[in-house]
Amino acid sequence: MPPKTAPAATAAPVEAARVRLPIRSAALNDLLLWRNPIKSGVALLAVTAVYAFFKYSKLNLLVVFLYALISLVLGCFLWNSYADFSHKSPVPVPGFITAGVSEEQAKQVAERYTVVANRVLGFLKRVVVNHDIAATSQVVGALYTAARIAALVSPLTLAYILVVLAFVLPKAYEMRKPQVDAAVAKARAQATRIYDQYLRQYMSRVPRASNAEPIEILNEEIKKVE
């Protein structure tokens, strides 16, 4: 009778690689990636409840927002009035509201966004001044797509869909990162092959704006600022 062999050890499950979203807020990053499932679930449920309330109550979102601002202003006035009378603390507000913004802080914000603003303006220049057919086609296509989407769904529904996607897609990508990366690489290789085979000879004949600022230079400037 042959000796019994020990069963092979079961391989430990591979933990999904943790990803980091391109946002500055660590709390928002953890919320969208479901680091704390209870908090993320409550947040998504709250967003859903707000959407359902405005969707089926037929209330005007702008009117509700303006009335909420009125309530906030009156609440701050009453709070501060009571605080003066009872020697209590006034309404807690962020420091920049009471202290203002320093020149150094304003300079940092300006330096951070100047390159981005110039990049947008450079693209607009290609469209409205340099009659760049490629840039014009991109703008027309984007605006047409936005118009078609706006005709199908209301702004409130579109905003809710985007929020739900923000809660679903990052976590789904984190859970299936190897498969998604492989599929994206395959799709990119296929698109490159089709472009090289069929479109490159035609795109090379498309006139480009001669005095448009090169996108590579702007990208390098953005990297320096970041």
TrEMBL record:
It is found in: Endoplasmic reticulum membrane. Its main location: endoplasmic reticulum. The keyword Transmembrane applies. GO terms for biological process: response to bacterium. The keyword Transmembrane helix applies. Keywords: Endoplasmic reticulum, Membrane, Transmembrane, Transmembrane helix. It is a multi-pass membrane protein. InterPro entries: Reticulon, Reticulon-like. Coiled coil: none annotated. PROSITE patterns: RETICULON (PS50845). GO terms for cellular component: endoplasmic reticulum membrane. The chain crosses the membrane at residues 32-54, 61-82, 149-169. Residues 28-226 form the Reticulon domain. This is Reticulon-like protein. It comes from Prototheca wickerhamii. The lineage of its organism: Eukaryota, Viridiplantae, Chlorophyta, core chlorophytes, Trebouxiophyceae.
